[in-house]
Amino acid sequence: MITVYSLKSVPEDMEIVTLNDVFFNRFTSEKLDNKADEMISKIDNAEMVSKFMIKSRFDGSVLNIDKLSTGCKTVLNIMYNPEKIFDIRECGENALDAVYSLDSGNICCPYPLVSFDVRKVKVNDKNGVKEMGSYDELKEWWMNEN
C-alpha cells in the first residue's frame, strides 16, 4: 500500500526526492530487473530489451533507458527505493494510475494529485497514519494538509 506524506509530516530521517529524472539516471537504473519491464510497458508503451535499453513505441528504435518519461522513472524510483519519499508532481495520468496501484512506496506532492483509480492508501500527517480508500477522501485530506 502506498503511503502519502503531507509536506508537513515527512520524518526527519527520510529524504524527499524531487528530481526524479536525475535520481533514476544516477541510482535506480542500475537496480532494474524483470519487474521493471511491466511498468515500462504499461506507462510508456516501450519494451525493455536489456538492462539499459528500451524499444521505442514510435518507430521500434532501440534507445537508452534514460529516454523513459519522467512519470515512468518516478514509478520505478518508488518501486526500487522504498526508503525514500518521491515527489509525484511530474507524473501524467498513466504514471499516476501506476503509482496508486503499487503495493508499497512513499510519495508526496505540494498539491493534491490523485488517480481516479485510487485504492487503499496510507496517509501520514501530523495526527499520525490512517488508511483512506477513495478519490474524494484522499483529495479532501490532501487539500487540507498542504
Brief sketch in words of this structure:
With 146 residues, this protein is an alpha/beta fold.
General description of the model:
The chain is of the alpha/beta class and 146 residues long. The chain has one domain. The chain contains 5 helices and 9 strands. A hairpin with a 2-residue loop joins strand 8 and strand 9 (128-132). The chain starts with a strand and ends with a helix.
Largest sheet: 6 strands, mixed
Rounded Rg:
15 Å
Number of strands: 9
Low-confidence residue ranges:
none
Note the main attributes of this structure:
146 residues, 3-stranded antiparallel beta sheet, 5 helices
Break the fold down into its secondary structure elements and pairings.
Elements: E1 2-5, E2 16-17, H1 20-26, H2 34-44, E3 47-50, E4 53-55, E5 62-64, H3 70-80, E6 85-87, H4 93-101, E7 105-108, E8 121-125, E9 128-132, H5 135-145
Parallel strand pairs: 1-7, 1-8, 2-6, 6-7
Antiparallel strand pairs: 3-4, 4-5, 8-9
